[in-house]
Automatic annotation (TrEMBL), chain A:
NCBIfam families: PRK08313.1 (NF006180). Gene3D superfamilies: 3.40.47.10. PANTHER family: ACETYL-COA C-ACETYLTRANSFERASE, NON-SPECIFIC LIPID-TRANSFER PROTEIN-LIKE 2. It comes from Streptomyces phaeoluteigriseus. Residues 246-372 form the Thiolase C-terminal domain. GO terms for molecular function: acyltransferase activity, transferring groups other than amino-acyl groups. This is Acetyl-CoA acetyltransferase. Keywords: Transferase. InterPro entries: Thiolase, Thiolase-like, Thiolase_C_2. Transmembrane segments: none annotated. It comes from the Bacteria. It holds the Pfam family Thiolase_C_1.
TrEMBL record, chain B:
The lineage of its organism: Bacteria, Bacillati, Actinomycetota, Actinomycetes, Kitasatosporales. Residues 291-300 have a biased composition (Basic and acidic residues). PANTHER family: BLR3430 PROTEIN (PTHR34075:SF5). One of its GO terms (molecular function) is DNA binding. This is DNA-binding protein. Residues 64-127, 223-286 form the ChsH2 C-terminal OB-fold domain. Residues 187-218 form the ChsH2 rubredoxin-like zinc ribbon domain.
Length: 388, 313
């Protein structure tokens, strides 16, 4: 028996900001879930199961927050699952939810991811004082900066590429009302003059710390037929993992990322991603990861990704727009960031991305990664139902 | 078998919580010696109040005052109170259904011993002397044999409402790095770096993990690596981390020690930070009594060819 086609019929996000002091965590997730239900014109009773994701419990210090969020998400009396795969969790949460529909376990599933970074401390959560270990570094930027340098050496990319990505994403964010950073006076010169934090990564090439949630309603063919707005159809989805550090790891272009993309493309019948995919939302927390992932995901040959960025191909009006929403560089509620990529890809093929819509987008890729380039999750969504 | 290392690991952090409208009213009420519940559309009163009806998922905001007296619905005796628990003498954990409420609140009951506690017993709130808008504004419950108190019908609206709290979290672990890393750490005290070789792929893991993550087999063959190594990549850290006593800027580098299958991480010194480069040959610099090399410094050898280290992560 073939799989049930999976459709996205509702999408909701909060306006991402540095601190939502007006709501509890329950109030935050409720807002995104309510908007997704409204978009789908459904009620809590129409939802068969809830799949929720967030980054490590240590971030907010609420152990197993899904327990207390069941009320807010209408999950009482229904199955509720928690997914955790570090920064990629928003993507893998959506994929777990999709698999419940594809397997015909449930007809309609609410999936949601969140982070309230203002009530957490990610830098602390990631830098616990483990005995016998030598403390050398705090935070994610210093961890990823050496990999960026290794990419620059390998590809021969000019130093300026990272600033081009940041300048593009921050301008795209101005067209997205939900984006956290709205830097109206951004210029390329300002990006390039911003302080060097972890050389080669500058301040303006790093993601902010955000409070936010993102929710989607996934449903089957029958649910899609009742949808008041065009659905986005899932054409492929995959997850891959590998250790953070191992002998032979390619930290610049991890094998797990390549394998994950290849699996998604195979499911979706994509032979040439550069030609066949109209828009990409990829997980770029530090600007240089755009050219790195362009290569890892097969949009460019090894060492050539930066040329797409430099030529403007990834701009909103380029032939391969990347991070039309402003991306993680403009909005980073960590646990939700992967789901925002997936949801923004779906908005594009539904034609509902507003000012940051790519004209005629028919197929879009949502991508997330997490840990030390350890977890990968991706989906490809289309305006047309998958051929079965 | 040599001794496996162990040490305490304390993880603690003062988390902040934004309360939202319902918890804000509840905790502000406690500050004013008022216990608030929330009414559901079918007429139940939930104490402590929640923002969303557990049955219908509706948003609920209809606050209602309940009495500071109530009935124990179940309990458990706590023989040995721990740090930061409500009482420092043995007490009962109780679920108390306050008069006027349909659900029960978890708190502590001050009682002389387990024989004096029973389900169905009547209790009342003992308020804390100093109240700040927190669940600890109820110091505990105490036995009570009077009439049910009458709530005053407070609206749930307060001046100067509490909107956030600080919740100190603390976890106490005993951490052990395990056999393989204990051996590595012990060898470091002789200023030797000892990894383990995978019997399958033959790669040498430094620090060793006791197993090869690629092949999934146990490792045991010890191999000394270094002391020289090659900088495979690095960054220059320009921001000072609160928890680190290292002057900035400094170079944080991946260093593949000679013979190792992957790089470890260390600081580079003995050379201006802006002259550090990929391929630089380095060696450890030890200081008296330190567990790890303080940093790595250039050996003066010619730089390594890119091809020799480009696949070492």
């Amino acid at each position: 028996m073939s799989k049930e086609p999976v459709a996205v019929v509702g999408i909701g996000q909060t306006k991402h900001v540095s601190a939502r002091r007006d709501v509890s965590i329950a109030g935050l997730v409720r807002e995104a879930a309510r908007r997704a239900l409204d978009d789908a014109e459904l009620t809590w009773a129409d939802v068969d199961a809830v799949v929720i994701g967030k980054a490590p419990d240590f971030f907010e210090g609420v152990m197993m927050p899904e327990l207390y969020l069941a009320d807010a998400l209408g999950a009482v009396g229904k199955p509720m699952l928690r997914v955790h795969t570090a920064g990629s969790v928003g993507g893998s949460t959506a994929l777990v939810a999709a698999s419940l529909v594809a397997a015909r376990v449930h007809g309609t599933v609410l999936t949601l991811a969140f982070e309230k970074q203002s009530e957490s401390n990610a830098m602390w959560g990631l830098s616990l004082p483990i005995p016998f270990q030598q403390p050398l570094l705090a935070g994610a930027g210093g961890f990823f900066a050496p990999h960026v340098r290794a990419y620059m050496r390998r590809s021969g990319a000019p130093d300026t590429i990272g600033s081009l990505v940041a300048y593009k994403d921050r301008r795209n964010a101005l067209k997205n009302p939900y984006a956290h950073l709205h830097e109206h006076d951004i210029t390329l010169e300002k990006v390039q003059a911003s302080p060097m934090l972890w050389d080669p990564i500058r301040y303006s090439e790093t993601c902010p710390s955000s409070d936010g949630a993102c929710a989607m309603i996934l449903t089957d063919r029958a649910g899609a037929a009742r949808s008041p707005r065009p659905p986005a159809w899932m054409h492929g989805g995959a997850m891959r993992s590998e250790p953070t550090l191992f002998a032979g790891k390619d930290a610049v272009s991890p094998q797990a990322g390549k394998d994950c993309a290849a699996d998604v493309y195979r499911q979706a019948g994509i032979s040439d991603p550069r030609r066949d995919i109209d828009a990409v939302e990829m997980y770029v927390p530090f600007s240089w990861y755009e050219p790195m992932w362009l290569e890892n995901l097969g949009f460019a040959a090894e060492g050539e990704g930066w040329k797409l960025t430099e030529a403007g191909a990834t701009e909103l009006d380029g032939d391969l727009p990347v991070n039309m929403s402003g991306g993680v560089l403009s909005t980073n509620p960590i646990g939700a960031s992967g789901m925002i990529r997936f949801a923004e890809a779906a908005l594009q093929v539904r034609g509902q991305a507003g000012e940051h819509q790519v004209d005629g987008a028919r197929r879009a890729l949502g991508h997330a990664y997490g840990g030390g380039s350890q977890f990968f999750s991706m989906w490809l969504v289309g305006a047309a139902p998958p051929q079965t | 078998m040599p001794e496996v290392l162990k040490a305490p690991l304390v993880v603690e952090f003062p988390f902040t919580r934004s309360l939202g409208p319902v918890q804000s009213a509840f905790l502000t009420g406690l500050r004013e010696r008022v216990v608030l519940g929330v009414k559901t559309r079918d007429g139940r009163t939930l104490v402590p109040p929640v923002e969303y009806d557990p049955v219908t998922a509706e948003e609920i905001r209809d606050l209602v005052e309940v009495a500071p007296t109530g009935t124990v619905t179940t309990w458990a005796w706590n023989h040995e109170p721990r740090r930061d628990q409500p009482l420092d003498t043995p007490f009962a954990w109780v679920l108390v259904r306050l008069d006027g409420a349909d659900t029960a609140l978890l708190h502590a009951l001050d009682a002389p011993g387990p024989d004096s506690v029973h389900t169905g017993m009547r209790v009342r709130v003992r308020w804390a002397q100093e109240r700040a808008g927190a669940i600890t504004d109820i110091a505990c419950f105490e036995p009570y044999d009077g009439e049910p108190a009458e709530p005053a019908g407070h609206s749930g609206e307060f001046d100067d409402a509490v909107t956030g709290i600080v919740a100190a979290a603390r976890l106490d672990y005993t951490y052990s790095p395990g056999r393989a890393q204990s051996a590595y750490i012990n060898a470091l005290s002789d200023r030797r770096t000892v990894g383990e070789r995978c019997p399958s792929c033959r790669k040498v893991y430094v620090p060793p993990r006791g197993a090869c993550p690629t092949c999934g087999v146990a490792t045991s063959e010890q191999v000394e690596v270094g002391p020289g190594g090659t900088v495979t990549t690095f960054c220059v850290v320009n921001i000072k981390a609160k928890n680190l006593d290292i002057e900035v800027p400094y170079v944080y580098a991946h260093i593949a020690l000679d013979g190792a299958g992957l790089a470890l991480h260390g600081r580079i010194g003995g050379i201006p930070y802006d002259q550090v480069r990929m391929g630089l040959r380095v060696e450890p610099v030890w200081t008296e009594g330190a567990r790890y090399p303080d940093h790595y410094r250039p050996t003066g050898e010619p730089d390594a060819d890119y091809d020799t280290y480009k696949e070492l992560p």
